[in-house]
Structures are given as structure tokens and as C-alpha cells.
Design brief:
Blueprint: H1 2-15, E1 31-36, E2 43-53, E3 56-60, E4 65-70, E5 77-78, E6 83-87, H2 90-125, H3 131-164, E7 166-168, E8 173-178, E9 185-186, E10 191-197, E11 201-207, H4 209-212, E12 218-223, E13 230-237, E14 248-254, E15 265-272, E16 280-284, E17 290-291, E18 296-302, E19 305-310, E20 312-317, E21 320-325, E22 332-336, E23 348-349
Parallel strand pairs: 1-23
Antiparallel strand pairs: 1-22, 2-11, 2-15, 3-10, 4-6, 4-9, 5-8, 6-7, 8-10, 11-14, 12-13, 12-15, 13-14, 16-21, 17-18, 18-19, 20-21
Length: 351
């Protein structure tokens, strides 16, 4: 009986219908979900930065020396004219004494030269001295007067240097950085503190290159943790990009933010108007955008086929992505599953 099973199976298999050579086995087009290109009301985007004073003044001594007293700390509020640091005044006091001695010597020489000139003038009238001798005395007297002027100017500089040994606040404000320490030897012009002047406050943000060309003049500013916002106006934009970050620093004046705390986190909300001539700004589902190393693209539905269309991604939002496209409003595109499609592929749109 076992020997009859194998021939029977072969016989049954031969009776099954076989596909002819002219019949091609085809796979059904995949189902896709569709959406349409709809224009956005405007491009909304944000930049986060920090609050700064309109004027942040680096503070430094006008002369070099050793710090003997530090009267302030970072975060303190100071009034205009308040003493912040003091240098050892010994050297500048000695310079002042030396300058005073130089002035006294120059004044004595001037008086002596003037008396000699007057004496020779009298002798010249009585023909007891030659014109050459008188001219020589007059030149000496003039040179002595000029040396006295120079010595007096040096004395004034020495007296000023004594005053420069005390570093005073140039205006009222808050010290946002203090680095000088007692015993530290500093050079003239070496920064040891930064003073944020009272008054206007600004939001400082870094602008990426793709936002630079159409950077709005106005924005809505909102401090971290504060629900109420206020207007901000562009005051200054850097002329060149930062070498490390490749961004442009922008300073926005906070119209009603004079009370904003220095250093606080602030977010600027921008709304860029649409430019129909330059293309369309639209919001589409995140799954509608494909990136395969050749730039972002979406698949336009053309009948029962898909066509790849290049787009530029502007930013992400809660429910999708904002793109810039040349497609007309209402154009159908694939909303999901674009990673499984190829340009020209046939599809079936799920109703």
C-alpha cells in the first residue's frame, strides 16, 4: 500500500492548473493616506536668549598698580561715583611730589632767564651789549617758559593719577561681574568688573543663518515662568557671524521690560508674513516629509502615481512640520508612509 501513495501524489500534482508563461505575477499598489497643501497664516518661530542691560560697561583702572581694597561684590547695586576698588597710592604720590619739584625748578629757571633778558635789554639800549647777546637771552627766556608749561602739565597728570588710584562707578547700576581681588597687580585698562547701567533692558538672541534675511523688526517677548508678554523691537544686529557658532547676535529692546531681571531667560516669538511670490509656507504632518540625503521632499499624488517634490523645512510644531514649497494650495500629497515609496510608483489612496 505504501508504494501506491507516491504515484498518487504525483498524479494529483500534475492535475493542478499551472500559470502560463504570458501571465505576469503583479503586486497590488500600496494604500496611502493623503492630505492637501494648505497655507499657514504666517510663519511662527521662536528664539531663546537672555536679558541684558542696554549698556554693560567694562570697568578698569586708568593706571596700573596693586589692588589694596575691594569694596563691592557681584550683584550689588551701586550709585554713580561710589568707590569700587583702590590701588596702592604710594607710587602715584611719589610721582606727584616729583612733578611738583620739577615745576618749582622750572619756575626758578624761568624767573632767572627773564631777569637776564631784562638786564641785557637795558644794556642794549645803552649800547653796552650786542644784539646777538640780547637775542640769545631772549631765546633762553622763551625756552624756560615752555619748560615751565610742560612741567605744570606733568604735575596736572600726576595729580590726576592720584585720583585714578580709586576706581569709581561711572553711573548707577548693578555689578554683574567682579573679578579684581586685593593684592592683584593689574595693568592700565585691564577689566576687573562689569557694570549694567540702570534703565532700558534688552533681549540678546543668536539668529541662525536661515532666519537672517527675513528677520522681523518686532517680536513678542516672554520671560521664563511669566505668562504675560510684552513687545520687543530690534535695535542692533551683528555685522558678521560668530566664528564658532555661525550665528548672528541680535539685541531686541524690551519696550515694557525695564524691570526684567538681568540674566533672566527670555523667549522671542516671531511671526513672519507670507511672501506669495517666493512660494508657499504650509504645515503638513511629520510623516509627509522624507529626507534621503538629497534634501527634504514630499510625494505629490498625480492620479494613481506619486511624484517627488522638493521642499524646505522651516521648523517643527506640535502636530507636524512647517515647510516652504512651490506647490499650489490644495495639492494632494502623501501624509504617511513616504519612506516606502519611490518616485513614479503607483499607489491607492485610502478614502
Amino acid at each position: 500500500m505504501r508504494y501506491l501513495i507516491l504515484p498518487l501524489a504525483l498524479l494529483l500534482g500534475a492535475c493542478q492548473p499551472q500559470p502560463s508563461g504570458n501571465e505576469a505575477v503583479t503586486e497590488a499598489p500600496p494604500w496611502v493616506l493623503a492630505t492637501t497643501i494648505e497655507p499657514a497664516a504666517g510663519t511662527v518661530w521662536r528664539l531663546t536668549g537672555s536679558v541684558h542691560a542696554r549698556h554693560e560697561i567694562p570697568l578698569a583702572f586708568r593706571i596700573g598698580g596693586a589692588i589694596v581694597r575691594r569694596a563691592v561684590d557681584a550683584g550689588e547695586r551701586v550709585e554713580a561715583g561710589a568707590v569700587l576698588f583702590t590701588l596702592d597710592p604710594a607710587d602715584v604720590e611719589q610721582q606727584r611730589v616729583a612733578a611738583e619739584a620739577t615745576v618749582a625748578s622750572a619756575r626758578a629757571e624761568t624767573e632767572n632767564a627773564e631777569r637776564e633778558r631784562e638786564r641785557l635789554a637795558d644794556m642794549l639800549e645803552r649800547r653796552l651789549a650786542s644784539q646777538q647777546e640780547y637775542d640769545r637771552a631772549e631765546t633762553a627766556a622763551r625756552a624756560a617758559r615752555e619748560r615751565l608749561v610742560a612741567a605744570e602739565a606733568s604735575l596736572e597728570q600726576a595729580r590726576n593719577a592720584v585720583g585714578y588710584a580709586a576706581l569709581r562707578a561711572p553711573t548707577s547700576g548693578v555689578l554683574i561681574a567682579v573679578s579684581g581681588q586685593p593684592g592683584q597687580v593689574v595693568a592700565a585698562g585691564e577689566q576687573i568688573a562689569v557694570l549694567a547701567e540702570d534703565g532700558a533692558r534688552e533681549a540678546v538672541v543668536e539668529v541662525p543663518e536661515d532666519r537672517l534675511e527675513a528677520l522681523p523688526e518686532h517680536a513678542e517677548a516672554r520671560l521664563l515662568g511669566v505668562s504675560a508678554g510684552f513687545d520687543a523691537e530690534l535695535r542692533e544686529l551683528a555685522g558678521a557671524a560668530d566664528a564658532a557658532t555661525r550665528t548672528w547676535r541680535a539685541r531686541y529692546r524690551l519696550i515694557e521690560g525695564a524691570a526684567a531681571p538681568l540674566g533672566a531667560t527670555v523667549t522671542l516669538r516671531f511671526t513672519s508674513p507670507l511672501d506669495a511670490a517666493a512660494g508657499l509656507v504650509a504645515r503638513v504632518p511629520l510623516g509627509a516629509v522624507l529626507e534621503r540625503g538629497r534634501g527634504a521632499q514630499v510625494f505629490r499624488i498625480d492620479g494613481d502615481q506619486v511624484v517627488a517634490e522638493p521642499v524646505r523645512v522651516l521648523g517643527l510644531f506640535d502636530s507636524g512640520v512647517e515647510i516652504h514649497t512651490r506647490l499650489a494650495p490644495g495639492t494632494p500629497i502623501v501624509a504617511l508612509g513616504v519612506d516606502r515609496l519611490e518616485p513614479g510608483q503607483r499607489v491607492r489612496v485610502r478614502p
